[in-house]
Amino acid sequence: MQAMPWFNAGVLDRDDSAAQLAGVGARARDDARITDMVRTHHAFVWRSLLRLGVPSRSAEDAAQQVFLVAMRRLSEIAPGSEKSFLFGTALRVASDERRSAKNRELSGDLPDGADLGPSPEENADANQRRAILQSALLSMPLELRTVFVLFELEQMTKSEVSEVLGLPVGTAASRLRRARELFREALRRRGLSLKVES
Questions:
Q1: pLDDT value at position 132?
Q2: Domain boundaries, given as residue ranges, for the chain
Q3: 33 Cβ partners below 8 Å, 6+ apart?
Q4: Can you name the CATH fold of 14-109?
Q5: Structurally, what CATH architecture does the domain formed by 123-198 represent?
Q6: pLDDT at residue 26, as a whole number
Q7: Residues of the chain below pLDDT 70
């Protein structure tokens, strides 16, 4: 029996249409997931970037980079681990941004005394507290600052911090103890004191 070309073509067309519809459905799910990720975690990513040393004038662009990486690698992000992935990406983006800022500063692209603190619209008292906090945080080594930020400022548990950073819980706890000591010392040097629970 001879094959009917129109029938075979019709099957292929139906298969192609089904594949296209499946692709559209997958893209819609991905779009919805990335939109939800941005809504849920944008503030966390933005704060993390600032606390990791990204200047406030560059924080929004850096946050956008974090979410672009997440969009490109969405299939690799297990449901429920979005925050961990975003923080790890923010660490890398912050590192790149600090290097770029240093290079711009060395090449004369930044004016002397460029504002690295919070936006000018915020009230003066809050600006001063944030500037002191930022300065104290930036005086800490990155591996200690990261644990401190996640536990003390983002209110994660020690087990969540260890999961986000891929560290044993004991290592995260010892880094947190050392970070708290350094934070207290940094505040003392600035003539302030703050009770940080041990």
A1: 81
A2: 14-109, 123-198
A3: 74
A4: Rna Polymerase Sigma Factor; Chain: A (1.10.1740)
A5: Orthogonal Bundle (1.10)
A6: 74
A7: 1-24, 101-123, 193-198
Q: How far apart are CA 138 and CA 87, in angstroms?
A: 17
Nearest to 69 by CA among 51, 46, 85, 83: 85
Tell me the per-residue pLDDT of 38-47, one tens digit each, with 9 for 90 and over.
Answer: 999 999 999 9
Query: pTM for this structure?
Result: 0.62
The structure tokens 């690799």 sit at 76
- C-alpha to C-alpha distance for 93 and 48, rounded to whole angstroms: 11
Q: Would you tell me how many other CB atoms lie within 10 Å of the CB of residue 5?
A: 8
Query: How far are the Cα atoms of 3, 44, 49, 181 from residue 123, in angstroms, in the given order?
Result: 79, 22, 21, 29
Query: Alpha-carbon distance 30 to 9, whole Å?
Result: 31
